[in-house]
Every structure is written in structure tokens, then in C-alpha cells.
Amino acid sequence: MLDTTIINTLLTKESIFTVLFVFMLFRQIKHSEEQEVRSRDREEKLTTFLNDMKNEFANLVKQYERLSEDVEDIKNHIDKDDKKGSD
Predict the structure, then answer these.
(1) What distance, in Å, lies between the first and last C-alpha atoms of the chain?
(2) Cα angle value 33/34/37 (rounded, 5°)
(3) Exposure string over 39-59, b if 16+ CB within 10 A, otherwise e
(4) Is the dihedral of CA 13, 14, 19, 21 positive or negative?
């Protein structure tokens, strides 16, 4: 009878730990899936942000090039005026 009580107690403890293990395993799997979704969303947002920054930088480069051309035109115009005035 004592042996049966000990065996039942051990089985009950093992059953509790088995149930706890399975519960924690499924909980961890669910948490991992949620983390995966959050990671994908964050990655998508960062990719979008970087693409937007790339486009914005390209626009700034174009504006700089136009400004640089305008400055060159102004310098050339001033040089022509100086040459006409000194002749």
C-alpha cells in the first residue's frame, strides 16, 4: 500500500510537470510567432523608411546639381560682363 502511494505521488508529480511543460512549450511557440510578426513589421517599416530616405537623398542631389549649374551660369555671366566692361 505504501508503495502504491509513493508510485501514485510520483506519477502525479510527473503528470503535473508534463502538463506544465506542454503548456510552457505551446506558450513559447505562440510567443515566438508573435515576435516573428512584430519583427517582420519592424523590418518592413525600416525598409520603407530607408527607401524613402534614399528617394529624398536623390531629390537633394538633383537640387544640388541644379543649384550648382545655376551658380556656374551666374559666374559665367559675371565673367562675360567683366570682360565687356574692361574692353
Answers:
(1) 126
(2) 90
(3) eeeeeeeeeeeeeeeeeeeee
(4) positive
For residue 87, what is its C-alpha cell? 574692353
At residue 43, what is the residue type? E
Alpha helices in 1-87 (DSSP H): 2-86
Task: Report the alpha-carbon distance of residue 10 to residue 6 in Å, rounded.
Answer: 6
CB atoms within 10 A of CB 74: 10
In this predicted structure, the answer to whether residue 81 has a pLDDT above a threshold of 90 is no
Query: How confident is the model over 18-66, as pLDDT tens digits?
Result: 878 889 999 999 999 999 999 999 999 999 999 999 999 999 999 999 9
Return the DSSP state at 11.
H
d(CA 85, CA 28) in angstroms, rounded, equals 84
Nine-digit cell string for 79:
565673367
